[in-house]
Design brief:
4-stranded antiparallel beta sheet, 2 helices
Length: 56
């Protein structure tokens, strides 16, 4: 496996495969609860461009 293989994986599909529940959607992407901490409000954003950012 190389860098290009990992870049081709959809982060949205990966999160859904892990069983993460999508909490919302906006014009730039999707919101999830961060799987590595306890939270009530979604802070993990995955953009349509397959980039993620944790606002938590």
């Amino acid at each position: 496996m190389d860098k290009e293989y990992f870049k081709s994986i959809s982060l949205l599909d990966f999160m859904l495969h892990l069983g993460a529940e999508m909490k919302g959607k906006d014009r730039k992407g999707f919101w999830f609860l961060a799987p590595y901490r306890s939270e009530r409000k979604a802070s993990l954003h995955i953009g349509y461009n397959n980039l993620w950012y944790d606002y938590g």
